[in-house]
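Forum: Protein Structure Q&A
Topic: Joint prediction for protein chains with partners

I've read a bunch of threads here and the consensus seems to be that you should model interacting components together rather than docking separate models afterwards. I'd like to see that in practice. Below is the full input, 669 residues plus whatever partners are listed. Could one of the regulars post the assembled result?
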Amino acid sequence: MFDFIFFVFSFVCIGSALFVAFTPNVVHAALGLASTFATLAGFYVLLGADFLAITQIAIYVGGILVLMLFGIMYTHTIARVSGEQVMMQVGPALLVVILTLFTLVATILSTAWPVKEVAPPAPTADRIGVLLMTDYLLPFEVAAILLLVALVGAVVIAQTPVRKSIEESVD
Amino acid sequence: MLTWIGNVASLKYFIGEIWLALACCIVLMLPLIPRFKNVRMSWVTIAAILFAGICVLRLPTALPEEGGLFFGMLALDGLSKFFKLFFLISTLAVVLMTEVGREVPDYRKPEFYSILLGILLGAFLTASATDLLMMYLAIELLSLGSYVLAGFSRIEKKSDEAAMKYILYGGLSTGGMLFGMSYLYGLTGSTNLIAIREALEASQIHPLVFFVSFLLIMVGIGYKISAVPFHFWAPDVYQGAPTSITAFLSVASKGAGFAAFIRIFYTSFLSLNGEGLWEPVAQLDWRIFLSILAIATMTLGNLAAFGQNNVKRLLAYSGIAHAGYILVGAIALSEAGVQSILFYLITYLFTNLAAFTVVLILADCNGVEEIEGYRNLGTRSPWLAFCLGVALFSLIGVPPMAGFLGKWFLFAAAVETLDPWCVAAVVAGLLNSVLSVYYYFRIMKAMYLEKNEGAGPVKSHTVLNVVATAMTLPVLLIILDGGRLYDWTGELSKLLLG
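Posted by a regular:
Agreed with the consensus. Here's the joint model:
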């Protein structure tokens, strides 16, 4: 039963990822991405990572994707971009991709990965919470600084034209 | 097994970083208060950097009980201390260059300094992280800020292009690095670098998976140090970014890449034997791979620099070549190798900052970036021409400049091991040094031999002249007491290995 669900999820996940890559319409691509994110959450559930699954849905599907759709809505030109996709260097790219894929698959298959005993599913949120406040406190805090820098950076990149026009009007 | 130090007990060794994080917010918020609206934020930034410098200088190079801070997230050792000082000096120079330069308009400076301090914090953490999670976060903090700063002068279209290229390559390579780290985690069940080595030593691991994870992590680091074949972003980004940021990327960001390199590979992938030599764990000799990488990096960097007319681009290719030279020290796999890398980075810091300060003066105050604009600089501004000349000689490695000593120690450390691949890399390094004379001398020739009738005297700024002088003097004077400086880097080249 688990296997069956796993294959259904995998099929939907890879299928929608391919759809995102090949569809010319950005809005469709964003919706395809939603399905990829949601099925990834499904994988987390199968692995017993309940907290991660909820976070995946809340942040990626609920937050980032909605933000993306808003971004598309507010950017007039994106929706009108023609569907032409220019592909350059198809041959070499294909070669690199196939070689990389082959190496990675061969590596994963030939390695005797250490396997842990499967523990019965238990809620993980409280343990993650405790770890974030003890062993992993510093990365947790640094992530906050990282987000601050990213936020300031995003404002800096977006703000220039507005600020300039204000200055011009003042002058 | 080491004893880790808890969060609260670690704080007293973390004051410099806390202050940088605070300053990052203060610089952003202070201009919003009307009373402080006209305070120059560069003062706050410089104060933050100097205070962090005092904190770093007071840090011990090892803890009495030999442990990692924050439950094994950070190391407190000579290596982290060295790199923190390295980043502080380069950031201080960059702040001065930005403040008097005109590439960043005044009203945007608070954001600029805020992000710069965030990057500095990221660089600090990169140099001391002993956990893959922490290392990734730190590198990401460093990179994210750099993407924004590379595109900061958005009036110029080139700057947009630079930021875009930087972020696309950066996203791909950090993704690759993260994937490689996930392999390591899957093999060993730990993210702590020391625990990873212990697990690798204890188990029989197929060399293939080990090599693939090494390769993938190397993608991320190779991108930071701009090693071939991950160097494609460098020329465009160096050319398009504001010159002060170009200087920062070529010195601090590259230094952070080497800090991460030494930290990850020397802690996890090698084990130290009794004689000051490292040996690869899991019977995988990746030295061959690295020496090929080093030879390719210096050769391609030098060859590509031949046809360049834009000095910023030329210095980008020269920076690629120098990444190749430094990698020669890394393949020695000895304590002397690490020591010589640190020494070379000191010489490279002053040399490159001196060169970029002069380039900034010419680009920013005089609007000249091409070699033609450097004609007759020797009579138009003798002191600046002298500074740039000293820096170029040092980049070539001509005695008695600092670059010569740096290369000397670097190549000596590699030859000492008598490994055929190391010797091959050294031979390639020497040949490349000869090759590089050609393009560095094109600038020298323009400065001293070519006539330029129409051009007037060079406009400059006192602060920039002072920075150029302050960076040139060490390049000239290091030779006087190079031995003691080398011993000092030896003291600081100790890693926390557990």
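Chain A touches chain B at residues 103-104, 106-108, 110-114, 116, 134-139, 142-143, 145-146, 148-150, 152-153, 155-157, 160, 163, 167 (CB under 8 Å).
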